[in-house]
Amino acid sequence: MADLKEPPPQSSKDATPPPTTGTRALRGASLLILLQILSRALTFIANQVLLRFLTASLLGVSTQLEVYYLSVIFFARESLRVAIQRQDTNGFDTGKDGDNKGSEAKATQAVINLSHLSLLLSLPLTFAFGHLYLSSVSEVTLRTTPYLVPSLYLYGLAAILELLSEPCFAVMQIRFQFGTRAAAESIATFLRCFVTLGLAVWGARTQKEMGTLPFAVGQCMYAVGLLGVYLVKGWKLSSVEGFSLLPRKLVAGSGSGAEKSEKRTDVQVGKETGNRKDFVLNYFYRPTLDLASSMMAQSVVKHVLTQGDTFLVSILSTPTAQGVYALANNYGGLLARLVFQPVEESSRSYFSRLLVDSSSSPSSTSPTSPTSPPSTSPSSCPKEPAKTTSTSALTQATTSLLTLIKSYLLFSLPLLVFGPPASSPLLTLIAGRRWTTSSSSSSSSGDSAPATLGLYMYYIPLLALNGILEAFVSSVASEKQVHRQSMYMTGFSLVFAGTGYLTLKVWGMGARGLVWANAVNMGCRIVWAWGFISNWIKERGGHGKRGDEVKGDGKGEGEKEEVRFRVLEVLPKPGAVAAAVVARSVVHRVVMGGSQEVMGAKEAVVELVKIAAVAVPFVVAV
């Protein structure tokens, strides 16, 4: 649904989306990665200054407030975002006299109407989650943390302000206008860093205890920045293309005769007599709304799994452990947020568009005919999985997915080899000896920041692999398959909770135990997603014509070859693995004392130079 001005699908059964789809997705991913690098670099610099004013317990409380804010945002918009990306526009009529621009405006208005539901959901979610958080916080934390309650209110306000920009965001996303998103998030990030850092420094100089207030005010400014940019861009686009940023009826009210014909400006989907059945309250496109509803249950489980580490550590561990894990998660997850998350988001849009368009054919949809039946493509959330995906599109999607996975695994090798031994000197330089020194005294209880960060390095490849696999799953899963995934996710959440109880309570591993619990959970999700994708590809044509893409063995053009999705297709070459083993043994011989060693800034620089001396030839060789 990214480019509504593209021509309708060709009559060929194996017709694929226009070649610009993949190119625009790739450009979007590149732009988002650049945006993430710049914004995270700015955030990183601000955080280094903030760490000088924070204790581990205060960092733990601020992390809990951020989870509250993210929970409101996630439950209010996540399922709607995924459903909107998969909305099929083939059923929307082309307007008066075949006006394709009118069809664009109508399809866009359907997206805007659905996006406004996120704002309605945010209001009860803000109050409900806020009440739950306050009831779960201990009296000691309330007394010892300055401005905790006002900070909670400000985080709730920030969530509502950010969701006000959701209709504009959805419009830009479906049109692949990533430049607007880049501008909005860059400005918002700058405002957040400037305000947060400014309040923290001012409080330190005036000897005022600011507590978590700088983080809360900074988050509000972030939401204001997003809303301002999106409103300006969205308003300009709406005035040109004829849609409204406010909810507008998609189906006209009851009427008759010439009066109804003259006043009707609605979207026509399906037969004339069945228009209203395709919409809820005349505002919301039913297939997309049904998909969003079915994904809501999965979103609950997925969010518990994503943020469950914070929930679990707040129940089973001390505020110090919470702060240590938050530090490791912030630094260890930086790479995932910089590179992997933008790729995941763009891939989800790419796979949705590629496989949705390939499933549409004139036999099932007729975008120029107001009397054609409603679309039954996967984007419309079929009750049962469709099995008519174009062979060429299937091959293209499988090849793209395998290439991404193989690149991820190859990129993970230097991270696994050099990440753990570099964690201690890196923390010394970026966070100060305060964190490494205090952590060394608690290393026996598992709350050592260098050791926790070192272990987190092994978790990052699992995080990246799961992200790209689940992006594909969310792009192709039917309503029935989404429900089945939710059931498995519920089981994985129980596995996560059980593992966390063992590592935190029984074995007393502290923050490191939490990393282990997350790794076990992520492994379960990867195995399930891999199995789902493998079966999905097999059901839609384990064999297909690959034409000139077939390599070797004298196979000619058009000859059949199996579309494979196997583990052996993505594993790094034995030579790369052997080089990694050798490099790791060399690093252990040249570094001073592993991730547990406490060192000064000078020693830290020396250790990093040693590690870099081994890393450079390894990366070149691999």
How would you characterize this protein structure?
This protein is mostly helical and 622 residues long. The chain folds into 2 domains: 20-251 and 272-304, no CATH class; 317-354 and 386-547 and 558-622, no CATH class. Helices cover 71% and strands 2% of the residues. The protein has a two-stranded antiparallel sheet with strand order 1-2. A hairpin with a 3-residue loop joins strand 1 (279-280) and strand 2 (284-285). Helix 3 runs antiparallel to helix 5 (148-164). The protein is globular. The chain starts with 19 loop residues before the first helix and ends with a helix. Residues 1-19, 254-274, 360-381 and 543-561 have low confidence and may be disordered. Residues 358-369 have a biased composition (Low complexity). Its main location: endoplasmic reticulum. Residues 1-22, 358-392 are annotated as: Disordered. It is a multi-pass membrane protein. Belongs to the RFT1 family.
Main attributes of the structure:
2 domains, 71% helix, two-stranded antiparallel sheet, 622 residues, 2% strand, 19 helices, single chain, disordered N terminus, mainly alpha
Brief account:
The protein is mostly helical. It is built from 19 helices and four strands.
Q: Helical proportion?
A: over 70%
What's the total number of strands?
4
Calculate the mean pLDDT score and round it.
76
CA-atom Rg in angstroms: 26 Å
- Summed up, the domain count is 2
Main sheet makeup: 2 strands, antiparallel
- Adjacency order of strands in the biggest sheet: 1-2
- Ends distance: 39 Å
**Element order: H for helix, E for strand:** HHHHHHHHHEEHHHHHHHHEEHH
Which spans have pLDDT < 50 for at least 5 consecutive residues? 1-19, 254-274, 360-381, 543-561
* Total count of helical runs of at least 4 residues: 19
Q: Structural class of the helices, strands and pairings? A: mainly alpha
Q: In percent terms, what proportion of residues is strand?
A: under 5%
- The dominant shape is globular
